[in-house]
Amino acid sequence: MELKGIHHVSAITANAKQNYDFYTTILGMRLVKKTINQDDPSVYHLFYADEIGNPGTDLTFFEIPHAGTTYQGFGSISGTSLRVPNDEALAFWQTHFTEFDVDHDGIIEQGGRKVIHFRDPEQQRLALVSDETNIGVKGGKPWIRSSVPADKGIIGLGPTTLTVDNPAPTMAILTEILTFKQTGSYPSLIDGQDDILVFSTGEGGTGAEVHIEPRKDLSKERPGRGSVHHVAFRVDNEEELAKWKDRLVGARIPNSGLVDRFYFKSLYFREPNGILFELATDGPGFATDEDSEQLGESLALPPLFEDRRKEIEAKLEPLDTKRPR
């Protein structure tokens, strides 16, 4: 058994309309699924990805309309990165962000790659990372109808950063329970802090890394809008996911057991620093209940919720995601 890389990252927004506008218009990602939070069907769950929502390309958001301010700190998923094809694409994005007044820090080199750190309107901590030197997990394919040129477009999720006060327990979970190996480190951007540690799984590269940032100068994060809920790692299929459940049980790690999310099967658990991890299968995918040409244009409900459609739609704020033909 070997995890294949990052599957998806799920974050929190307080404003689905503003969120949709930013991630589709400014970032040029495709909304591949407009559905509900299956644990709370009164709110949206939005999935942004490449052309068809390939595993490893999905950045998702739960809408929590009254979510408060995030007070950043340790015990958190503190950074989500998005892959672009090369360094030339980053130069485009630097100009693009300036043109659209996106809060960004310009191009820097970090961990041997060029990156741009930036924030969305709710201060979600994001980065674009260049795939110029990537020889690991391949990226996806930008949507041909994106607002961003295809050769500059976002091709998937890059490394996920975890900020913790004590890295040892998280490192143990990654290397002893999951299938990550430490492959490097690089200096923190914060003076006086320890190096950021790089862990990789599967084929490695930008689509298969977790970065651990040790911080002794922070208090525990209080999540809200603009924070990340969980990170999911790729498992090949349901049979392998069942084996992962057995491994967690054998290690006496509390977990959710297998959960059917319809678009994939999942398993959830918290590592010792309190960060929520998910293991998720690569299939069956987002075209299961919608034609690939119309992905994300209508409210999609898993079969378990279909008989409640009228009730669910009545509680949701209308969100127009129809795209002109």
UniProtKB/TrEMBL annotation:
CDD domains: PcpA_C_like
Residue ranges annotated for the VOC domain, each copy included: 5-131, 156-282
UniProt-listed InterPro entries: Extradiol_RC_dioxygenase (IPR052537), Glyas_Bleomycin-R_OHBP_Dase (IPR029068), Glyas_Fos-R_dOase_dom (IPR004360), VOC_core (IPR037523)
A GO term for molecular function: dioxygenase activity
Keyword Oxidoreductase: yes
Oxidoreductase keyword on record: yes
Pfam families (UniProt xref): Glyoxalase (PF00903)
Gene3D superfamilies (alphabetical): 2,3-Dihydroxybiphenyl 1,2-Dioxygenase, domain 1
Keywords: Dioxygenase, Oxidoreductase
Protein name: Ring-cleaving dioxygenase
